[in-house]
Design brief:
- This protein is 41% helix and 10% strand.
- Helix 1 (14-24) crosses helix 5, helix 7 (145-151) crosses helix 8 and helix 12 (256-270) packs across helix 13.
- The chain starts with 13 loop residues before the first helix and ends in a 10-residue tail after the last helix.
- Strands 5-4-3-6 form a four-stranded mixed beta sheet, covered by helices on one side.
- By secondary structure, it is α+β, with helices and mostly antiparallel strands.
- It folds into four domains: 14-117; 125-182; 212-297, Ribonuclease H-like superfamily/Ribonuclease H (Nucleotidyltransferase, domain 5), CATH 3.30.420; 354-400, no CATH class.
- It has 18 helices and nine strands.
- A hairpin with a 4-residue loop joins strand 4 (234-240) and strand 5 (245-251).
Length: 400
């Protein structure tokens, strides 16, 4: 027959104490039932309630009620040891002493018991007196607690902070006045007051907090993200809290002029009405890149209501084989500020290109290039334009 191994005891957790409190709130609580649910011994549940119950009414209210007088209520002399589930708890009870069990208070009492057990010196009285005599002699010679702990490591083990704490507690008649560096330095001053910023009180966080709740909820957040210390470039982030959209713009340098140029580019790309609706109120930190408030708050004038943009990569000539395609504002923002945003030719002349017409012009341009490479005449039946025209395709001849 194998011997049953005894389970190691652990303290009841906060959730287990809450289960015990709920069981005690019943009219007829069962220690065996809650012990079965928690996988504990009924004696452990009973001892937990009796050890951590507190006085709800009577002398010593709020303190631990380990023992009660013999003339107390029968519920306090045996299980359930408390008045939690008593029907006369709220009204009709004339007892001078009432006890209750609370999971929160039980946890606080258990933590306090462990803390009290760890106070003091974990040494025998003779060994501690001998160690303090040596510490006092070394301090009189001018040694610091760190030097004492290092030099006396073979005789007693104590950390320098422990020696400092023993001296401050007054053990062996010592005090901090015997430590030269402890009394040689001036006490540290309190925390210095915050210096006034350059933007003034009208743009401070206090002024932002004074705004109505609706305006503060619509505010956007702007900040810069840096990388390695040797990199001068950084990323400007704009987070619109109402719609939870974040825009990231690459800056060549972390300066107020670069931030202002990025905001101007963004306003041109999405338009002034949308820009003011999304970023009308922006919350930043006190960084130097946001110091030029006039440039950041200045709007960029536009020369027309048309919002169509043309994306052209920087460094590529316009007369090359690059095909220019109109992009939307969202696509322009996705490409970043490393690209030039320009208005299309149709927008300059007051008209807009339709997507089908643009595709037709691009296809015609490719067909013309292919025909010229093969030496075919324009508009012949063997040429791509001839086949397209005989089939009724509404393609027009591409401009040279």
């Amino acid at each position: 027959m194998t011997e049953r191994k005894q389970k190691r005891y652990f303290r009841l957790t906060r959730s287990e104490q809450a289960s015990v409190e709920r069981e005690l709130g019943k009219r007829r609580p069962s220690a065996r039932g809650v012990a079965r649910d928690l996988g504990r011994s009924p004696a452990s549940i009973s001892d937990e309630v009796r050890r951590n119950r507190t006085v709800a009414k009577g002398p010593g209210r709020g303190e631990r009620a380990a023992d009660v007088p013999e003339d107390a209520c029968a519920r306090l002399l045996a299980w359930p040891w408390t008045c939690n589930g008593c029907q006369h708890r709220r009204h009709g009870c004339r007892r001078a002493l009432r006890c209750e069990y609370s999971a929160a208070r039980a946890q606080a009492l258990a933590d306090g018991l462990l803390s009290e057990a760890r106070k003091g010196v974990n040494k025998k009285e003779y060994d501690f007196e001998r160690a303090m005599a040596e510490i006092r002699a070394d301090v009189a010679r001018g040694l610091s607690p760190a030097q004492i702990a290092e030099g006396r490591a073979c005789e007693f083990k104590a950390h320098p902070s422990t020696i400092y704490r023993w001296i401050a507690a007054g053990y062996a008649g010592m005090s901090n006045a015997e430590l030269r560096r402890k009394v040689g330095y001036k006490p540290r001053k309190g925390r210095a007051e915050a210096k006034p910023t350059s933007h003034g009180p009208e743009r401070s966080y206090k002024a932002f907090s004074a705004l109505p709740e609706e305006k503060r909820a619509r505010a956007a957040e702007m900040d810069t993200v840096i990388g390695l210390s040797k990199d001068s470039a950084c990323v400007l982030t704009l987070y619109a809290r109402p719609c939870k959209v974040q825009v990231c713009l690459l800056l060549a340098e972390k300066s107020s002029s670069a931030v202002a140029a990025a905001l101007d580019m963004l306003e041109k790309a999405i338009g002034k009405p949308l820009f003011q609706r999304l970023f009308g109120l922006v919350l930043t930190d006190n960084g130097t890149e946001f110091s030029d408030t006039e440039a950041l708050e200045r709007s960029v004038p536009r020369d027309g209501p048309d919002q169509s943009v043309l994306l052209r990569r920087a460094g590529v000539p316009a007369e090359g084989r690059m095909r220019e395609k109109p992009r939307g504002a969202a696509q322009a923002l996705a490409e970043g500020p490393g690209h030039l945003v320009r208005r299309s030719e149709g927008a300059r002349h007051g008209r807009r290109h339709e997507p089908a017409q643009l595709r037709a012009e691009a296809l015609a341009h490719e067909h013309a290039a292919h025909r010229d490479a093969q030496g075919g005449g324009p508009g012949g039946r063997g040429s791509p334009h001839g086949r397209a025209r005989h089939r009724g395709d509404p393609l027009r001849k591409a401009e040279p």
